[in-house]
Write a sequence for this structure.
């Protein structure tokens, strides 16, 4: 069974600092990988996704993520954090079978941004 | 394009009452998902439909929960009778189909409180 681990439950960074949120997955083949962001009181918004090809993917709001097969990781990065980035971030893995419908989420990382 | 539309956004109800949550998926999407989000368990897939047919309801917690999708543009999640432990955010999500891989688009959620 597939699984996703986000080791950091909370992260605090200063505005303007760089950010890296960690995500490790377990899956028997090349997975579909996603990062979603959830602002308070809102639903989940897709930031970026990896299906195949270039292992460095660009997303919205200046985010990027890199798929590293050897480390089973898909870490999310941003070079300079803005106060509006404060939210909860979810990594997810989807399988290629079962019509691709089994999306498994990590537990989330709550990002706080200091002024 | 309108996103996934859920109603009600917030509901407070008394234990024992019936709760019906509603969802309108994005037009043209052929898969629909119901997720539940709690602090303790994170995001859990309750059930998903493909072309209006329930495919996997193994995540539905118990017989008090039921979901229907009478047509491609509407789904309901019903809890009868409701209990305080059902308090959570319930997300509906939809997916366009194989052409977009596993990308799932979420609604803004229905915040349910059972007192």
């Amino acid at each position: 069974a597939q699984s996703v681990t986000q080791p950091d439950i909370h992260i605090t960074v200063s505005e303007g600092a760089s950010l890296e949120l960690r995500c490790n997955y377990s899956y028997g083949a090349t997975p579909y990988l996603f990062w979603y962001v959830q602002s308070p009181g809102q639903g989940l918004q897709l930031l970026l996704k990896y299906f195949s090809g270039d292992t460095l993917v660009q997303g919205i709001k200046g985010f990027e993520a890199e798929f590293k097969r050897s480390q089973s990781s898909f870490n999310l990065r941003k070079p300079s954090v803005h106060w509006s980035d404060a939210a909860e971030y979810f990594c997810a893995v989807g399988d290629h079978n079962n019509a691709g419908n089994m999306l498994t989420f990590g537990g989330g990382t709550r990002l706080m941004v200091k002024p | 394009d309108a996103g996934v539309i859920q109603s009600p956004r917030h509901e407070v109800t008394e234990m024992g009452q019936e709760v019906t949550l509603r969802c309108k998926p994005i037009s043209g999407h052929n898969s629909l998902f119901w997720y539940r989000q709690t602090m303790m368990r994170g995001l859990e897939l309750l059930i998903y439909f493909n072309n209006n047919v329930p495919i996997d309801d193994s995540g539905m917690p118990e017989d008090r929960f039921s979901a229907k999708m009478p047509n491609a543009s509407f789904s309901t999640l019903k809890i009868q009778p409701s209990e305080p432990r059902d308090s959570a955010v319930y997300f509906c999500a939809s997916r366009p189909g194989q052409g977009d891989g596993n990308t799932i688009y979420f609604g803004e959620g229905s915040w349910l409180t059972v007192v």
Summary: The interface with chain A takes residues 4, 31, 33, 42-43, 45, 48, 50, 55-56, 91, 93, 95, 98, 101-109 of chain B (CB under 8 Å). The first strand of chain B starts at residue 5 and ends at 7. Chain B has a mean pLDDT of 92. Residues 42 and 86 of chain B are 13 Å apart (CA to CA).
